[in-house]
Amino acid sequence: MSSADRLLLTLHIGFAIFTLGPLTAATMATPRYIRRGEPGTVRYLHRVTRVYGLLTLGIFLFGALLAHGQFSKVWLSASMTLFIVALVLLVIVERDQRKAVHKLELANAEQRPGTTPATPPPTTPAEGAPAEAAETVTAPGEGPATEAETGPGAAAPGPAPARAPLGEIAKVETGRIATISGVVALIWIVVLFLMVWNA
């Protein structure tokens, strides 16, 4: 093996070690944090998946250069085909992670309690002031409820809309990410077995 081939092999193995490990960990941990309803963590895992997914192209590039055009070998063609399939599946995972982050952020915004305006404390008449001075003029609509407002024809406030629990948000994306992540991890194992067996 020439020095150029040794360099290509070193880069090929180095990219495999430092990209596939974090990539697999990020994709397989994503469903857990989606169920917990943590959009910040899911957003970080999505970024890790995108960055390390792009870096895995180095594995394919240096492996193809190391093959010296001998793509007629069955094990080499099978490994490259499986690698391309894994990259396509990772694109689907990245898309589902992005959708899950969006849904979790919307759910958190809807479940955030609104702020109520502060009411001023009631005023009491000064000591010795006449009782008439203590009377305040109420604006229309601010006084006690009249019979017309509380009668049978008055509209009663409806119940608050039910909100889905955080575990049910992005349920489709969670199941798809978990399934595809397992398939991708299995593909990495098969490709590794083919490389080691035929090295």
Automatic annotation (TrEMBL):
The keyword Repeat is annotated on this UniProt entry: no
Lineage top rank: taxon: Bacteria
Record region (Disordered): 104-161
Keyword entries, A-Z: Membrane, Transmembrane, Transmembrane helix
Residues making up the signal peptide according to the UniProt record: none
Membrane-spanning intervals of the chain: 6-30, 51-68, 74-93, 177-197
Keyword Membrane: yes
Composition bias, Low complexity: 125-161
Protein name: DUF2269 family protein
